[in-house]
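USER: For my understanding, would you kindly supply a protein sequence with its structure tokens?

ASSISTANT:
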Amino acid sequence: MSFWVDRSHPERGTIEPTRTGDRWPGPPERPKLAMRGLLILLLPLTSMFGLLISAYVMRRHMGDWQPLPLPWQVWLSTVLLVLSSAGFEWARRAAAAGWVDDVRRGLLVAGLLALAFLGSQLWAWQQLQLAGLAVATNPASSFFTLMTGLHAVHLVAGLAAWFRTRAVLAGEAEPATVQSMVQLCAWYWHFLLAVWLVLFGVLLFLA
């Protein structure tokens, strides 16, 4: 694919051509392109977690499988992630309405709750270790660590985007840019919440 950028027109230069084909649309198209990019990213992530759950369901029918009692910290993690996602939704709606102070508050609350979620996950893993259920103890504990660990890795990646969004908000970014970044963070967090609820249900009812 070739690209055409006219530096005399700073509003041009995105990757989606117009119908005429001789110009590239500018900032108004960028939020749409960014959302499409996020959706494209979420497709393989959905497939990956789906395959992991399928492997879990099949593996649990083998003879060496021992049910894993879920530590109560997993329930705490669920509550924290629900509240964190609600914080991002608060920030998203505030950004759409142009309420900058509420955007800052929503992002701060969401990020702190996300960090608390990671802390509760570390606490849950520690409790399993103390109970003698280390990663290699049995397949159930291995799958628990793998499933929750992969989810935590993607949440850390989301926190990097959260940090970048807060940095942009602290500067003199255009409102449209801030609104787009907050929206992307919010939808990514809602996706992580949906994945976590599915993982939690699988671990709770199919252990």
In short: The chain has one domain: 44-205. The two ends are 49 Å apart (CA to CA).
